[in-house]
């Protein structure tokens, strides 16, 4: 057996709650791993697959909300679903503002938790896909020559070859060659394609050439 396609992590200090959630989540065919505290979760080795975290607000040691803050600061973007028997509005607002998928007060409906888990897993899949795309584009960007990298922002700003040439002191024919190489290496089929790639990588378009 290889790694599961996705994992639901459950952090709760009550073994009966952990077992009940495990049974529920496994009943819809999802893989579940259980932890009794935030520290246990942090110290575990976890497969690099789409996942979400179901956790109680009140945990031994670090609380669920403090744990959420720590993960956010550590740039760990795992989607979180909070469950609690003692929810209040400020707590809910704080959790949701920090990016929680859902905040469920016990006793909650099984379907509400399952819906939140599906939403969390989908959010994580999308995030992972976006990160993989950006990493691939950055690799392609690394393959460009310094000259090709220089003309990239000028090309995506909409300048014609002749105008790019005037900017960098090169002939229109030279720019044309650089431009076709640039498109090929980036895997862009059109200028619009190249613009989208540049936006994903956060490449700034020179202010003077932005379209109004």
Attribute tags:
54% helix, Rossmann fold, Arc Repressor Mutant, subunit A, 2 domains, alpha/beta, 212 residues, five-stranded parallel β-sheet, single chain, 9 helices
Instruction: Please give the CATH architecture of the largest domain.
Output: 3-Layer(aba) Sandwich
Give the proportion of residues in helices: 40-55%
Number of helices: 9
Largest sheet: 5 strands, parallel
Uncertain residue segments = none
Summarize the structure.
54% of the residues lie in helices and 13% in strands.
Protein architecture, described:
This protein is an alpha/beta fold. It folds into two domains: 6-136, Response regulator (Rossmann fold); 143-209, Winged helix-like DNA-binding domain superfamily/Winged helix DNA-binding domain (Arc Repressor Mutant, subunit A, Orthogonal Bundle). The protein has helices spanning 15-26, 38-43, 64-73, 89-97, 110-142, 146-156, 161-168, 172-186, 191-201; strands at residues 6-11, 31-35, 50-56, 80-84, 102-105. Helix 6 crosses helix 8 (172-186), helix 6 (146-156) packs across helix 9 (191-201) and helix 7 packs across helix 8 (172-186).
């Amino acid at each position: 057996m290889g790694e599961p396609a996705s994992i639901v992590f459950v952090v709760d200090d009550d073994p009966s709650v952990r077992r009940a959630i495990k049974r529920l989540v496994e009943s819809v065919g999802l893989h579940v791993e259980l932890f009794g505290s935030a520290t246990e979760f942090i110290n575990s080795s976890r497969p690099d697959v789409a996942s979400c975290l179901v956790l109680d607000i009140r945990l031994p040691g670090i609380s669920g909300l403090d744990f959420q803050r720590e993960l956010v600061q550590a740039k760990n973007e795992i989607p979180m679903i909070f469950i609690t028997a003692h929810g209040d509005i400020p707590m809910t607002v704080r959790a949701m503002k920090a990016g929680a998928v859902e905040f469920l007060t016990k006793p909650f409906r099984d379907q509400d938790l399952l819906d939140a888990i599906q939403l969390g897993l989908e959010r994580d899949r999308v995030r992972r896909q976006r990160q993989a795309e950006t990493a691939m584009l950055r690799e392609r960007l690394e393959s460009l020559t310094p000259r090709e990298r220089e003309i990239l922002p000028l090309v995506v700003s909409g300048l014609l070859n002749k105008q790019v040439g005037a900017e960098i002191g090169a002939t229109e024919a030279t720019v044309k060659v650089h431009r076709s190489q640039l498109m090929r290496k980036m895997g862009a089929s059109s200028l619009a394609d190249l613009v989208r790639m540049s936006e994903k990588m956060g490449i700034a378009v020179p202010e003077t050439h932005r379209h109004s």
